[in-house]
Amino acid sequence: MPLQDLTPQLRTRLSRVERAVGLFIAVATLLLVAGFAYYVYHTAERKGWFLTKVTYYTYVEDAAGLKAGAPVKLMGFDVGEITFITAMAPDDEHNVYIEFQIQSPYYGYLWSDSKVRVAAADFLGNRFMEVLKGVNGKPTVREDKKTVLILTDPAKNLYEPVAGGKKPRLYGLECEESPALTRRLEVVVNKVEQGLPGFLALTNKIADVLATSTGMIAHVDTTVVNANTVMTNLAVITANLRDPRGSLGDWIIPTNIHRQIQTTMDSANNTFTTASATLTTANTNIATVATLLKRSLEDSAAITSNLNAQVQANSTILSELSGLIIHADEVMQGLKRHWLLKDSFTGQTNQPIKSIVVPRVGGGK
After folding, report:
1. Quick one: which H or E segment has residue 79?
2. Which of 111, 113, 118 is nearest to 72 (CA)?
3. Confidence of residue 364 (pLDDT cuts 50, 70, 90)
4. 251 falls in which pLDDT band (50, 70, 90)?
5. C-alpha span between 34 and 74 (Å, rounded)
6. What percent of the chain has pLDDT over 90?
7. What are 138-170's pLDDT values in tens digits?
8. What's the start-to-end Cα distance of the chain, in Å?
């Protein structure tokens, strides 16, 4: 139905609906644009597009597991990202060149003694890059008002603007790289493959040992069955040994020998008792004799002492006895020569002993 055929009332209503739909579309468009703008701003803020960034570089041996756009971590935080990866020239001493950006304010943690560490991230061969906080060096970046300065000569403590010149200035950090996990696993697998023949030989030896052990166990079972009889016999023997009059005792010492041994032991005991009494009596008698002998010796000592005293008191008694004997001899000689008694003496008399001391004249002392 053409628009001209509509009544004025319908055309008025239709124009109102068209204005409402146009207004709704305009509002929806504005909301969509505002939402998109907010999303872009939030994303830029989250990714640090409005923050100041400083670019660093390093060298690695292998770029496996690393890619541009991968985050760079510091103390567990995402502080930047890898921006560029390329291979070095064939004649260069380094293999791979990597550039990465660190955003504000985290570049303040990086000093001249900071390092880059590349480590395995998962079991799929991916790796991540992490910068280490400096300790004793000099700050790599310094902010002077609104100008960002980067360290160009640590020895002279010289800083220059990052944006100075045609290319922004970069600062290089030393890298500590660990091999990718897949490479480590490959090394482990190679070692396992090298040691597998020896392991299989060992398992074969173990199987042989187990087979031998099975045969030995069968022999041990037979031995145990035979040993049961021996153990039964030992139990009977030990039961007899526990009896004071057991079979072993009767075999070693028969009953008649036991009686004789008992009689001999009683006789020896009686003899020992008698000998003990005799020794006691002899000990008493010896003590008495020793006491009497001691008294006799003491008396003898007293007599000899008195005799010694008497001899020392009468020192001339020997001289007087000698003179008495000489005078007696002279008297006897005179009697022999006397005419009246001459015939009474027959033979010759003994001559006086020459050893007798001649008395002094007058016979005095």
Report:
1. strand 77-87
2. 118
3. very low
4. low
5. 35
6. 16
7. 888 888 877 888 888 888 888 888 876 667 788
8. 213
314 DSSP assignment? -
Which among 138, 128, 48 has a CA at the least distance from the CA of 82?
A: 128
Mean pLDDT, range 338-345, rounded to an integer: 64
H or E segment and range at residue 217: helix 181-242
Separation CA 160–CA 168 (nearest Å): 10
> Given the structure tokens 């994303």, which residue do they identify?
43
Assign 212 a pLDDT band (cuts: 50, 70, 90): confident
Per-domain boundaries in the chain: 16-50, 53-179, 182-244, 253-313, 314-365
Work out the average pLDDT over 343-351: 57
Closest CA relative to residue 160, chosen from 177, 140, 190, 176:
140
pTM for this entry: 0.44
Instruction: Tell me how far apart the alpha carbons of residues 87 and 95 are, in angstroms, rounded to a whole number.
Output: 6
> Shortest CA distance to 95 belongs to which of 124, 68, 64, 121?
64
Amino acid letter, residue 197: P
Which residues, other chains included, contact 94 with Cβ-Cβ below 8 Å and sequence gap of 6+? Answer: 59, 88
Strands 158-161 and 127-131: unpaired
* 130: nearest Cα among 188, 193, 76: 76
